[in-house]
Amino acid sequence: MAASVDLQQLQADLDLKCSFCLAYFSDPVRLTICSHNFCRSCITAYFKTKRGASCPLCRKGFELKDLWPNRELAVLVNLISREEKEKESERQEELELNRASDSQSSARRRDVEKEEEINEISKQLEMTEQTIHLLRKDLTKTKEYTSQIKSRITKDFCCMKEYVERQERNTLMFIEKQQQATQQKIEEVIDQLCAEVNKLTDIKAQMEKGLDNLPERDGYKGSPLTMDKITLDEEKIDVLTSAVEDLKKQLEMLLLEKYPGQFPPEQPPDLHQEARVCSLSSESRAENPGPGISSQFSQWADDVTFDLTRVYQRLVITAQNRKVMVSNHPSNYEPSPKRFCISQVMCSQSFSTGCHYWEVITKDSDGWAVGVAHEMIGRKDKLGRSEHSWCVEWVGPQKQLSAWHRGQETLLNREKPLKVGVFLELQKKSMSFYSITDKEMLLHTFEINTSNPLYPAFWLYNLERNGSLTISHTNRR
After folding, report:
1. pTM of the prediction?
2. Cβ(325)–Cβ(318) under 8 Å?
3. According to the model, what pLDDT value does residue 12 have?
4. 2-151 to CATH, choices 3.30.40.10, 3.40.710.10, 3.30.300.30, 3.90.650.10
């Protein structure tokens, strides 16, 4: 009876009837595009009557090749059918028992029913074994298909690597040729001027000796200072540099946008990797997306990283949680009551005492805000627009830098910083923002009066463009 109750509950929870014939599924198949189930004969007949057929339940287009046998559903339908047959058999038995008076006849009926039940169980066993066999075949096919896909992807990535390496060689060769051509021009002019110097020196010497028969001056005429400056074709090189940077950004964003949240976050390097990183040349370190901090504030530098529970869905975190980028698709973050409803992100670290410093690379974004905020900042509160946050902000269309707190704006007559440093002096209750180039240039200082822990916080403007902010690596002196 317990098995019967389970099957009844299963029948109530699952829709085991075809939406076409309204009967229990017969040879059920599943549409791989949407996972809806139909009788094979029903959906095949439906497909033949349509041009460009779509799923009757969700309207997603499909082909006959998208039909996949649903063996598990077939087993369930058979179990339900068997249960109903058993119930019908029980009802018939009760009727027969009410009419029957001969105990011998009843015994014969029971034997017949037992034999029928044994036959039904035998059929069920045979069908179940067949289903197991088919599922194992499906598993083998899945493994083979996955192996083929992995092999194809590996081959595609090898081709892309070869292409990128070839383009790198061509680009470096082009720059080298530009440099050689410029160098040749400069050396030719230098040779001409050296010859002119020698000739002028001879003429000067002869004039000093009082000689009248002087050689004719047919060389360079005029002052060398009036010559046109010979330089590299910087416009061509800038175009190449911009193209390489665009390609790097597109490669970085493509898979993250198509499949947000499907790729594991980058992990910090182990001890052997750290040793290898420390031995890299200055050239390879310059290519790191988050260069180290090297300024007068480096003794107070803190290792801050973005918090995955406090980042907007349309922002992607990469590079050991140090880089935030705009994405064209929502990321698959886990639900969090702290997650921002606007394009902002906070760091995991907070500060309530002492001095603290960090730097943010801002050159790759047309609009941004860099600042700090209390933990109590609202999910919809923009930086600097409440009493719980402070920031400096650069907005692309206005092309102006300003400081914000409590919704009050202070215009700063400065160019767009390519890197911003933030220095907290909590004992002095002050916070300063700096533009970082070869030296630090003060942008603005806030007086802060709070006992609440402060978190680094950031805002990215214009979700229609792929801007990014990168936190520099800590490099204490």
Report:
1. 0.48
2. yes
3. 64
4. 3.30.40.10
